[in-house]
## 1
Amino acid sequence: MSDLTLKIGRLVLANPVTVASGTFGYAEEFADFIDLNQLGGIITKTVTLEPRPGNPPPRIAETSGGMLNSIGLPNVGVQKFITDKMPFLRTLTTKIIVNVAGKSAEDYPEIIRILDAVEGIDAYELNYSCPNVKEGGLSFSANAHVAESVTKSVRAVTNRPIIAKLTPNVTAIGEIGLAVEQGGADAVSAVNTFVGMAIDIPSRRPKIAMVTAGYSGPAIKPLALAKVYELYKKIHIPIIGIGGICDTNDAIEFLIAGAAAIQVGTANFWDPCISIKIVEGLQTWCRQNHIQKITELTGSLKIK
Amino acid sequence: MKTLKKAVVVPVLANVQVTHDTWHITLEDKQIAHDSCGGQFVNVFVPQNNGVLWRRPFGIHTTDPDKGVFTLLYKQIGRGTTALTTVKAGEALDILGPLGNCFTHTSDLKEAIIVAGGIGIAPFPLFIQHLVQHSVKISVFYGARSKIDFCCLDFFRQTGVNLHLATEDGSSGHKGFITAPLLAYLQTLPDKPGARIYVCGPTPMLAKMKELCRDTGVPAEVSVETMMGCGFGACMGCPVPLENPASDGRLYALACKDGPVFNLEEIRFDE
Ligand SMILES: Cc1cc2nc3c(=O)[nH]c(=O)nc-3n(C[C@H](O)[C@H](O)[C@H](O)COP(=O)(O)OP(=O)(O)OC[C@H]3O[C@@H](n4cnc5c(N)ncnc54)[C@H](O)[C@@H]3O)c2cc1C
Ligand SMILES: Cc1cc2nc3c(=O)[nH]c(=O)nc-3n(C[C@H](O)[C@H](O)[C@H](O)COP(=O)(O)O)c2cc1C
Ligand code: FES
């Protein structure tokens, strides 16, 4: 058996395979299909201070090799998250990472303060980057100063590990990565969705009610991989790689490019068992390739 | 009863074309054949997928629990359903199911009035299989564009349901929409309190049905169709606008998780 464990700051994951926010519900949706405790970690659907109804339909559209979504962060709000969703999550032994988003910069420390009193949360992922919310989100990680100061304000109210989730829709993602590192983030996760669009020709209407949307799935993998590599060259904290990961080889590519762990997103939708298959696939691949510790892979890209 | 959702690879026993654009596929799985109820669906992974990413949802059409088989009735409309027509007996399909909820059958039900438009007929035979075992009177109002579009007419004749047909081109039954003969029927219905309508069809028909049910006071359930990214509550891509905010403040229900069957009066079709 190869050693698949790794550390994200003080957070120890049993293996590098986690599941991406918004693609795994609150884990209960997958309980019939897989043994959730075999995962390295679970990142929950974004929670906000107040409940949000989400966007009108159509919210999703399929394109060749990818999908567009403008879901609009529907969620029950932090209080109901604690009473309705946490009890199930607490029964799990895998790491629970709660993803949060704010309407304003002040929302972030406030929501973290509320969650910090709750048992069973192992880390936070700060969603700075969701392009689907009118109020912003995107703005928090599109600007290095804002990203740094929001991270600092969260760092000031919690000792739990913080992971800053970055948008790829910026010119220099490395600069944003450095800023959140300076703000006290323990890790970054990259990337969130790319801004995209699709049009229904007969009606000339956008295929998504909100017109533009977040693009994800296999089609974004090369783009996401390049962002992870760019971050790896620039920052010193661990990177959790996200974007179009559909099988074991995809996951390994992200590790080689510099990721310490990965998140499986859109692929969960067509194969709810895919995350576990990747955990098993990594174990097999490491054994076959005589990799003792999975951490040896991170950033092992060879450029002659 | 909570049935376990599952991901399984099931043998294909037959896949036959039944009309110019509609196919009937027979699949083998004991649990799904045994546990499913009318209204539920399976989400099918499309082989040779030409860039198709999501699974495709189809209502469970009939089941044979003794033989451990179930069937789907599907209309060829795009990439996924076209790929599905190439699947052959002896091959296997990767499916999730059974998913979603069922049409309700309460003990006071005396007459089930089934209203289907086009391929909206697909989920009803399973429900009818169940109802005939409970001696409920069954009336079926089935509308299609033309005579050549009708499916399962033999099934309806064998089950002895009270069948009403309509076609837009007048090639069979009433000429026009099925809602016209339905309205006439409802106006003369002697036992309204024991009757319930079950409807599945294109959105304009559902909007019309909503009006009709409000006017006649007969309660109705509807099976809705939306885009589905996952089919099991993970993507939140299948919202159904609610007429009034739910008790927890939600403005939308999820078709795959809270449905696909809803009380017609609870949902809106204008978006
Ligand atoms: C719960 C549920 C049960 C269903 N049961 C059946 C069934 O028993 N038999 C059956 O034939 N069909 C059923 N459908 C519809 C079926 O899922 C779609 O026809 C199928 O997914 C189309 O796939 P495709 O790849 O061939 O079409 P695509 O190439 O994906 O699409 C062709 C065109 O149809 C539109 N479209 C596709 N799916 C939908 C949708 N769900 N809502 C609105 N527009 C759509 C697309 O935007 C596009 O314009 C059901 C749908 C749901 C949600
Ligand atoms: C339907 C859908 C909903 C999403 N919701 C969220 C969300 O609530 N919060 C968040 O941080 N990211 C959300 N994401 C982004 C994913 O977590 C992930 O970053 C992105 O999809 C890229 O990975 P993938 O290509 O593997 O899906 C969502 C993605 C999809 C497809
Ligand atoms: S289809 Fe994904 S939540 Fe309903």
Note: The pocket of flavin mononucleotide (ligand 2) is lined by residues A 20-23, 45-46, 69, 71, 73, 99, 127, 130, 165, 192-193, 216-217, 220, 242-245, 265-266; B 235, 237 (CB under 6 Å).
## 2
Amino acid sequence: MRVGFFVTCLVDTMRPGIGFASLKLLEAAGCEVVVPEHQTCCGQPGYNSGDHKSAEAMALKFLAEFETFDYVVLPSGSCAGMIRVHYPDLFKHDPELSARFAALGQRTYELTDFLHRIARLEKVPGTFQGTVTYHDSCSGLRELDVYRQPRALLATMPGVKLQEMVESTTCCGFGGTFSLKYGELSTRMADNKCQHITATGADAIVGGDLGCLLNIEGRLRRTGDHTTRVLHVAEVLSGEEK
Amino acid sequence: MSAREAILGRIRNARNGKDRHEQAAGATEAIAAHLARHPRGPAPAMPGDLPARFRERALKLSSDVLETADRKEVPTLLARYLNERKLPLAGVCWPSLIGLPWSSAGLDMQSRPARDSDLVGVTGAFCAIAETGTLMLLSGAETPATTSLLPETHVAVIDPRRIVATMEDAWDLLRQECRQPPRAVNFVSGPSRTADIEQTVTLGAHGPYRVLLILAPAR
Amino acid sequence: MQNNAIDFKRQVTVKLADIKLQGALSRLQSRFVEGRSAVISEIADLPETRNAAAAIRDRVLNDLEHWLLQFEQQATARGAIVHWAETDEDVNRIVAGIARQHGVRTAAKSKSMVSEECELNDALEQAGVEVMETDLGEYILQLAHEAPSHIVAPVVHKNKEEVADLFAEKHQLPRKTGIAELCREAREILRPAFLNADMGISGANFLVAETGSALIVTNEGNGRLVTTLPRVHVAITGIEKVVPTLEDVSTLVRLLPRSATGQSITNYVSVLTGTRGDADHDGPEHFHIVLLDNGRSKLLGSDMQEMLRCIRCGACMNHCPVYQNIGGHAYGWVYPGPMGSILTPLLSGLEKSPDLPNASTFCGACAAVCPVKIPLPDLLRKLREQQMERGMKSRQETFMLKAWAWLALRPNLYALATRIAVRVMRLLGGKERLLHRLPGAHGWSDGRDFPAPAGRTFRELYRQGGRK
Ligand code: SF4
């Protein structure tokens, strides 16, 4: 199957290793992966800030670049949710376009969701020794029902011990521009999350959305925790963490 | 223009499009049809023994439950219940229940609506609901609402054959047996309670501190 | 009630630092969130039941005019008098008028959020009517001269020590410390208020069009007392609260207490229809129902109509990570949490509440639990769009958004700009690979470091055909 890979703007710029880790996993699952060269951002920052028009323009750009693939895969539940759930909504006024977006959305998956349910990956390339705890990012969880999938994949790794934190499904406080506009509130929410993480004693906090991970890592480091590793699930599964 | 007309006018204008009169006619018909059918929503299946389910749910809501096959035994059960809790052996009851042998059980029972000073109030129930362990009480001249409300102890004598599965079933029974709902239909589920202070449940807020349900078939 | 939402940001700082409040909020979360999850599963087919509940509300909202008329006709036929109020002030005027008409000197009131919109108590006091709140939480707030901070648990922001101090001071009785003793003391103080009140005031959770009834759910029994003992009963509620039939209201009652407090059913569900009969020993002689618009009707037919489905269960705020950290007062008006962040701008002015639509991460926890499936984050987003369209966003934010979009639509320029940006950030990160300060984004860096990027973008590395 031909998979179009959308790296997301955050992974592209802030942690490209997650992109390569994802590619490795998709190839291990037997996919033919294509990375369209001109991809940029899914348009979520503008969309969530009330800039409907820009979001429409970016959605159309995305459609042009990705419509031909069997599947589209992203290492982010948040951006995958934007494409699956919100793109069709953006074009409600245009039934034909809306239908094309809905069809594209149906073929668009968050990485672990795709690997587990569609590609049915049973043996992952990575090895990892240690205890991890998993943070469930909001959009992946509530828009795409991503909860079992990363856990099932991690469970195939003999060295990984999953130690669940309390309230793993509570928001970490990132929320895109929210984290800048309401920094104090956002920091408190991150702090609550960090306390739950620390309480597990895990070696690494793992998640599927880089935004949340930057937020969590930023708070952990600021409060003096320089040892707990903060990893994207693709990095752990592929063995590309460093 | 009155507030009523202004509000209704705004609501009317909010629905753009279709011709007003056509729309109004259609709406009235649709409303009449819905009212005539009064369809039920999804309700839990309630297989098995309704009185057993009622009892289990009522206990969960902190009601006390006693049972007897003989309605004449009700006063004795109540006297024992009150004695065990060192509660006064006097109270008021609905007129339909005054015929039970209260005084031979040592109870001073009066047939009248409750006043503030009454400590025990004995009522029947129109029916009871197994889904939630709830009583359905109808207000009326013979079934005063205060009896289940002012006294600290509320006792309800229930015919187990009048236990229905759901609130929807209770409404059906009401439709069958009454021309229209009485002034007050009160669904009662256990002693009054509050959790306003620190979300800690305390029984006996402004209504009864305890509710005793006695299942006893009416003849 | 005056809208103070303009002060939101400052209030956030205050509330985050309030240790007592933080303790109280953690209790709310554990009791209500866990409580709901324990009983919501009793509903055999939850998704279907929520769909049905949303459909019931939509049926009414899509034809509110006729359902209201049906309700009014039935209620009037049973002897109730229906009043229509455009604004909060109209409600106050109408209720004061009813009090005058019936020679009312004292009123006992059970909980009504709509009356909080109106600040009815103050208006009645001015009209010479002594009003006693009888819901324990509302009574405490009346003594303390405070507003509710939650629509179901109004006094959640106070702990029992504060209540004990308040009672000791106001009741002039020895200070109690146990919660049960405090409740008993309030019961004894309030009992005469019920018995002597000329008028009972309540809200109404639902209005049943089929029968012209007002439905009230309560736990304490005060709702039953104020609607049974006084000779006049006034029920105040919003025009959107109509529900077609007794079956429809049963579906909603199956969801409301479970979503609200984690109870399978509230202690009392009272369905009140008309006035007392000739032979009755109890019940009001006069039953007035006041229907308030206050901005609701203008939401009909708009893309915000779904908000009117709300049955005021409070689940959205109980599950909201923002509410859980700041409580209800920070929101500045009657309704807090996610539903308040939508209702306050809609009913009380978007320009007065610029922060409320934005103070959400769109985590979606609210929509996931809302019993009538209101897409709360979508409605918040629509308010943000309105802010954008009406030029209510800061110039800096608008510029940033437009600049980002402009760039993202020009892949080559975007590639260049991002390549430069990540190199600069990599440099600034230094050996530690952490940025301690982000110019222009101190909201982030006041409390958090920023992990420095690798210094190369994925796309450039990929194009070079390799890894790092
Ligand atoms: S919006 Fe939904 S969850 Fe929130 S109070 Fe209203 S009905 Fe309850």
Note: Chain C has three domains: 1-39+314-391, 42-292, 395-465.
